[in-house]
Amino acid sequence: MRVAKVRHFGPIESIQLGVGYFGPPPVSVYAYSIDGLLIDTGPPILAKEFMAWAKKQTINQTFITHHHEDHSGNVNPLAAATGTPIYGSALCSDLVKGKVHTCLAQKLFWGTPQYTDKVTPIETNFIETNKHHFELIPIPGHSADQIALYEAEEGWLFSADAFVSPIIKYFMRQESMKQQIASLRKLIALDFDLLLCCHTPLMKGGKDQLIQKLAFFEQYYGQVLHWAKLGDPPHTILKKMGKKERWSGYLLSGGNMAAINMVHSVLRDEGLAR
Ligand SMILES: [Zn+2]
């Protein structure tokens, strides 16, 4: 089942995109359109659906929140169709130029990442439209190049993949929990009503959910450190914390999406990885 659903959050229009092989998609991703600004471009597997929607939007400029293929997947067809600038962080612009290796699970749900040299590094720490001013806030952790867009007057926070869910069950190999904790603290300090997460947008209660996620990570981090200092290896730590590996996801992703990666992330950030 291919899903391409248009949703509105006040004046912001969005498209929710996802693929399901046995019914509704288990994961989906949102791209947003507001006042001539497009935020993200959806996954390559749904290029047709994304482009059909994008062609109905007024697009003066686009911003890519981070290089992952469910956000940067249709930069090439969008650039060809509109000819308008597409921006991202300097690191995002670099990462999308290279071949990004993704696992089978990612390829099944998002498609194969497309090489592109069409993301221009943004040189300002804001982006402006006719009616709005968006502050660009670096929020590394989920990926090193990730940026949030904050419209202070309206109380809108486009948080990329910094939220997703208050409880996280697996990490991709390169994620950093320490950086995510710092980024969540930054976002919680902002004044906003609407949390425009790229996977789970929330009209209400977004800040509370971010606070819950921060508390979850802080507790998780502390527990890993506690057991690591007693000399336990990563798999024993995971077990002692009462967490289980998600073996189907682990196998389908070749270990790229795994509970144990959360433990490894803490050990790496603390210089305890062996
Ligand atoms: Zn991502």
Provide an overview of this structure.
By secondary structure, the chain is of the alpha/beta class. It has a domain at 1-123: Ribonuclease Z/Hydroxyacylglutathione hydrolase-like (Metallo-beta-lactamase, Chain A). It contains 10 helices and 14 strands. The chain has helices spanning 47-54, 69-72, 75-82, 90-95, 104-110, 177-188, 206-229, 234-240, 247-252, 260-269; strands at residues 2-9, 12-19, 29-34, 37-39, 61-63, 86-88, 120-121, 126-128, 133-138, 147-151, 156-160, 171-172, 194-197, 257-258. The mean pLDDT is 96. Bound molecules: zinc ion.
CATH homologous superfamily designation of the domain at 1-123: Ribonuclease Z/Hydroxyacylglutathione hydrolase-like
Hetero groups bound? zinc ion
What percentage of amino acids are in beta strands? 15-25%
CATH architecture of the domain at 1-123: 4-Layer Sandwich
Relative helix content: 25-40%
Determine the mean pLDDT.
96
CATH domain topology of the domain at 1-123: Metallo-beta-lactamase, Chain A
